[in-house]
């Protein structure tokens, strides 16, 4: 006789998981504003026409909030828990992929949540 396996539903697992970036460790979530997933980075790279150039207007390193303004004058409020605000100080030129939520600061890319 075999022992039945205790299986947790995805919902209960998701509710119990806490992102480690809140505790100062590497991000353990791929939700918007957390760790950048490989597929997200690849699909953003494959759609090159959708990247827009922007300048960082505001960067709050403690809260992870950023405001970037595109060269067309459109402002985007972003949040990232993985240190994008530390890398992109005010006045830094960046590239933003609005559809897939990717912010590029030089060669480094971040998953961002658009407000």
Shape: globular
Which H/E pattern describes the elements? HHEEEHEEEE
Strand content: 25-35%
In which order are the strands of the major sheet placed?
6-5-4-1-2-3-7
Beta strands, count: 7
For the sheet with most strands, the description reads: 7 strands, antiparallel
The CATH architecture: Beta Barrel
Going by helix content, strand content and strand pairing, the class is alpha+beta
Could you name the CATH topology? OB fold (Dihydrolipoamide Acetyltransferase, E2P)
| Mean residue pLDDT | 83
User: Total number of helical segments?
Assistant: 3
Describe this structure in words.
The chain contains 3 helices and 7 strands, in the order H-H-E-E-E-H-E-E-E-E. The protein has helices at residues 10-16, 38-46, 84-87; strands at 51-60, 65-70, 75-79, 93-97, 102-105, 108-111, 113-114. It has a 7-stranded antiparallel beta sheet. The radius of gyration is 17 Å and the shape is globular.
């Amino acid at each position: 006789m075999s022992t039945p396996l205790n299986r947790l539903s995805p919902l209960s697992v998701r509710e119990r998981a806490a992102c480690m970036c809140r505790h100062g460790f590497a991000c353990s979530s791929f939700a918007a504003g957390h760790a950048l997933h490989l597929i997200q980075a690849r699909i953003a790279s494959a759609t090159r026409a959708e990247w827009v150039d922007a300048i960082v207007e505001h960067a709050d390193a403690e809260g992870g909030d950023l405001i970037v303004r595109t060269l067309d004058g459109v402002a985007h409020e972003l949040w990232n828990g993985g240190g994008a605000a530390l890398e992109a100080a005010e006045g830094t030129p960046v590239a933003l992929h609005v559809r897939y939520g990717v912010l590029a600061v030089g060669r480094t890319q971040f998953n961002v949540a658009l407000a």
